[in-house]
């Protein structure tokens, strides 16, 4: 796609990457000087040989990339096998990545991938002077132009029909108002939701006024739903901070594919202590742009999490509504930390039992809050829980969560983790990241010597100790 957009640095980047993996490779040097087709094919063949001999899949990918940027538009069978090989690699890559890129990028990649696959049968109408890569995009567009036109026509027809129905509804509503002298019904904007509705008489109730207090600004108000960000940007941000948990990142974000607003189905992250589960859950919400409300399961029960009855002096709405009121959005993320440590006694009701009503779409959209004594629409609230193990959790809770295992990093992940750790520590100190320079060789060695993988919390403590020593040394000098 860089080639199609007219980028002129693609070949230089490939040469640099080959040099990084195969220093002073004569085939790479020859291609760098001449940029001939013969040189490119020779380099690709040598990279394939080395990929097999040294078991390095990255070299095979680079070989296919060299072919892609070098092959001409096919006019005969001379390079048939080379074109076919690139086509197979493109199709496989597209199938693996199509669900984790934003829609615009996915459409562009699909056009290019299948345009390349069909190129050999379509050479009679593509420009002869263009490369295979440039013509692949053209062919891909031609293969879908009638479907695109049909889709546009269907959308126009749907828009006209919806517009006609809207006009009819407005006319019917106007007629009803004029006939009955009734007030016009409220119009809720797109991507908004009224979570709590109370009558004027209820709002004036002395007991309810004490409970609502600062919450009154989110009652009878259409609250915005935070829209989903570009998923590839969110994925890159999370992978930068959690490079060892790529499967968890993709598992969590896959739930947002095709959604306009942020809403995750209940997600349970299970892993050993210290691996960064809670921090991942918090950062997931922050990266998606929604507020995160944390509830400690070991200190929560049915009464506190699900809300306290209005008859009690300490009456309080449920945690999900408090999260909505604090953020003033209808789709915050509620983090239930260490859910397996919730109390098992039923004096005040078990947290596990009350959670069931929040995790089901049918009941969460009509949750009867005991303090406000009205049904709340909590259907757009996302719930993420963490646990060190699954053992104590009852079956109904496990059934309602999507469960994913969170790994611990190893010493091989140190270099990938350090930038995120330094960034996080700088944020906690209130410093710009540019003020915290990367660790030098001695500091890096000290960290590696004292952290052999495992707990990210321990890694943070080790890095903090190294930074303190750096600050002390700087002040002495």
Query: Tell me about the biggest sheet?
Result: 5 strands, parallel
Strand order of the largest sheet: 4-5-8-3-9
Mean pLDDT: 86
In CATH, the topology of the largest domain is named Rossmann fold
Structural class: alpha/beta
Shape: flat
What's the name of the CATH homologous superfamily of the largest domain? P-loop containing nucleotide triphosphate hydrolases
SSE string, helices as H and strands as E: HHHHHHHEHHEHHEHEHHEHHEEEHEHHH
Name of the top-level CATH class of the largest domain: Alpha Beta
Question: What is the number of beta strands?
Answer: 9
CATH architecture of the largest domain: 3-Layer(aba) Sandwich
**Share in helix:** 40-55%
Cα-based radius of gyration, to the nearest Å: 29 Å
Task: Give the secondary structure arrangement, pairings included.
Layout: H1 10-21, H2 26-34, H3 37-54, H4 57-70, H5 80-97, H6 103-118, H7 132-180, E1 192-194, H8 200-203, H9 206-212, E2 222-224, H10 231-241, H11 246-253, E3 267-270, H12 277-288, E4 292-296, H13 302-306, H14 319-327, E5 333-337, H15 351-359, H16 361-364, E6 367-369, E7 374-376, E8 382-387, H17 395-400, E9 402-405, H18 414-429, H19 441-450, H20 456-476
Parallel strand pairs: 3-8, 3-9, 4-5, 5-8
Antiparallel strand pairs: 1-2, 6-7
Describe the structure.
It comes from Bradyrhizobium diazoefficiens (strain JCM 10833 / BCRC 13528 / IAM 13628 / NBRC 14792 / USDA 110). One of its GO terms (biological process) is protein catabolic process. InterPro entries: AAA+_ATPase (IPR003593), ATPase_AAA_core (IPR003959), Lon_Prtase (IPR027065), P-loop_NTPase (IPR027417). This is Blr7723 protein. GO terms for molecular function: ATP binding; ATP hydrolysis activity; ATP-dependent peptidase activity; serine-type endopeptidase activity. The chain is 54% helix and 8% strand. The longest helix has 49 residues. By secondary structure, it is α/β, with parallel strands linked by helices. It has three domains: 137 residues, no CATH class; 182 residues, Rossmann fold (3-Layer(aba) Sandwich); 66 residues, no CATH class. About 1% of the residues have low confidence. Helix 1 packs antiparallel against helix 2. The two termini are 52 Å apart. The protein has a five-stranded parallel sheet, with helices on both faces.
